Amino acid sequence: MLPGAVLGMGAGWLFAAHVSDDVIRILIGVIALTFVANAWLRTGHTSQVRTVLRGVFWGAMSGFTSFASQGGGPPFQVHMLPQRLPKMVFVGTTTIFFAAVNAMKIVPYFMLGQFSAKNFSTSLALLPLAVMVRRVPTVIFYRITYILLFLLGVLLLWQGLSHVLRG
Question: Are 133 and 91 within 8 A, CB to CB?
C-alpha cells in the first residue's frame, strides 16, 4: 500500500489548490458508507482476493485523501478490514502505514503552509484511545471500527454536501 500512498500523495500535492475540501469529504464519505454497507449487507462469508494492484489502488486513495484532508483512514480500512488480521497486527500495520504517510507529508505540508495547532491537538486528543486497544476483545474491536467508520462516513458526507449545496 505504501507505493500507492506515494502516488496518491503526489497527486494530492499537485491538485491541492484545485480540489475542494468538500469534494474530498464527499469522496471519503461515499467510500466509507459504501464499504460499510457492503460489509453489513453481505450474506455469508465471501472473501475478496487481495492483490498487489488493489493494495496500490487503495494505498493511492488513502495517500491522496490523507494529503488532501487528513482523511486517509477510510480507504486504508477498505483494503485492510476484510483481511481480518489479528487486532494488534491490524493496529500495528495501521500505525506503521500512517507514520510513513505522515512522515512523507512533512516537506510538502511545510511548502503549502498546512501545519496548524488544530492538527497537532487532534493527534494529542486521540492518543489515549491507542492505549485502550489492548484491552478491547478483537471481535468488539472490529465491530467498533466498522461503527466508527460508518459514523465518520455519515459525518464527512453531511459536511461536504452541506457546504457544496450552500455554495
Answer: yes
Euclidean distance between CA atoms 143 and 126, whole angstroms:
19
C-beta separation of 89 from 35 below 8 A: no
pLDDT per position as a tens digit, 116-166: 676 667 667 766 666 777 888 989 999 999 999 999 999 999 999 999 898
For the chain, which residues make up each domain, given as ranges? 2-166
Amino acid at 151: L
Q: What is the DSSP string of 26-75?
A: HHHHHHHHHHHHHHHH--S---PPP-HHHHHHHHHHHHHHHHHHS--HHH
Q: Whole-model pTM?
A: 0.79
Residue with grid cell 480500512, as numbered in its chain: 77
C-alpha torsion sign, points 113, 118, 124, 125: negative
Q: What does the alpha-carbon distance between residue 118 and residue 134 come to, in Å, rounded to a whole number?
A: 27
Q: How far is CA 14 from CA 64, 76, 128, in A?
A: 10, 21, 34
